[in-house]
Amino acid sequence: MPHVNVKFFPKEVSEEQKSSLAESITAALIEHLGTRDGAVSISLEPVEKDVWNDTVVQPEIAGRPELLIKRPDYL
Length: 75
What we know:
alpha+beta, 2 strands, 16% strand, 4-OT-like_dom
């Protein structure tokens, strides 16, 4: 605990970028949730633009608005 799944439109992400992103997300979770480094897991999940609405927006954003802590401006 916690696990973060970052969904994004497919693009090339270098190992250095992945490592930096993981460090930043982990640091934020440690600071704000009081967790420890070894308890954090993070995944990157590319989602094609043409299925974004059906696989991300509807089930996870519009379908669960009570869980959002930041709402996207495209809704």
